[in-house]
């Protein structure tokens, strides 16, 4: 009986034709010619700045190509075009009956504006999180123009308010998303930062949909390895639009190594953009600086960062500004994503955070739907809060 077992064991790993042994390589280690929506799990070890091994030390485990049968079929969705989202999101703002726009217009339309009226306007702006400096500027500009022009007609007041609000939001800021690599064949690398609870990982998934709708090939890097289920959440978003997700094989793995692997995979796949989700911890600035600094150093060995997006919850007000200040100091933020902007009473956060960091709001979220993320447009935003 033992002799029979000794023959059966090797026979189980032999294939017909020449008696060659075919090793059954796990799907998670196959990296080349992968169908869309594939999840790549990488064994990751914490090795300091050397966490991402040099190519000579760790050649890609791509000798065994995967087939379509190796990856579970997932229905792939076609995201809505980004252009159509702008109008839809503006209309949603307008339908919500923005308290900010309604209150300002109600006061400005009064026959005679007293000091109390101007104080009420300034208070309304402050409650909307515009910030003390910008609120004072807007009130002073409105007072001067109303006095000089003698504006009392409702439509004229609306036009005047719109003009000053647009100026405050600053349509001249460059809001283009930098997703192109610096060299031909090199992907753009977008790192997304922010504290947990702001919708950061969801925003990465929605941004992937925006880019897929623009016919870009995307790779996701699940470098938030400390929050339970963060990688699973990102993987689900990627699978829905046929995007590859690179993740660690265990919780608590080195985020820099995962980010490095994602960029390397993006280069190997000929991707246009690699989106890297990061951990949202904010216990102390020193720890945050060390973690994000390490990710940046390791990732840039493969390709430069083209964009660092900070995700903020628009409803958090001054607390959100504190977060913005810390991340702006440690992460080199180049653009802001505001989520939950459908709480339009706090719409002034757009102005305040731009003033705080000196960088533009580039994307806004106005709902829970998968395609409720859109490029920010100053004039359409103002039209939305004024109900135009």
Measured distance between first and last alpha carbons: 85 Å
Radius of gyration: 26 Å
Overall 3D form: elongated
Largest beta sheet, briefly? Answer: 9 strands, mixed
CATH superfamily of the largest domain: P-loop containing nucleotide triphosphate hydrolases
Spatial strand order of the main sheet: 1-4-3-5-2-6-7-8-9
Structural class, by secondary structure, is alpha/beta
Number of strands: 9
CATH structural fold name of the largest domain: Rossmann fold
Name its key features.
single chain; 388 residues; alpha/beta; Four Helix Bundle (Hemerythrin (Met), subunit A); Rossmann fold; 9-stranded mixed sheet; 13 helices; disordered N terminus; GTPase activity
What does this structure look like?
Helix content is 43%, strand content 12%. The chain is an alpha/beta fold and 388 residues long. Helix 3 runs antiparallel to helix 4 (115-127), helix 9 packs parallel to helix 10 and helix 10 (285-299) packs across helix 11 (318-331).
Q: Can you summarize this structure?
A:
The chain is α/β, with parallel strands linked by helices. It has 13 helices and nine strands. It folds into two domains: about 100-170, Up-down Bundle (Four Helix Bundle (Hemerythrin (Met), subunit A)), CATH 1.20.120.140; about 175-385, 3-Layer(aba) Sandwich (Rossmann fold).
Describe the secondary-structure layout.
Elements: H1 2-11, E1 39-42, H2 82-95, H3 99-108, H4 115-127, H5 132-149, H6 154-169, E2 188-193, H7 200-213, E3 218-223, H8 230-240, E4 244-248, H9 255-269, E5 273-278, H10 285-299, E6 307-313, H11 318-331, E7 335-339, H12 349-357, E8 361-365, E9 373-375, H13 378-386
Biased composition (Low complexity): 43-58
Organism: Xylanimonas oleitrophica
Subunit structure: Part of the signal recognition particle protein translocation system, which is composed of SRP and FtsY.
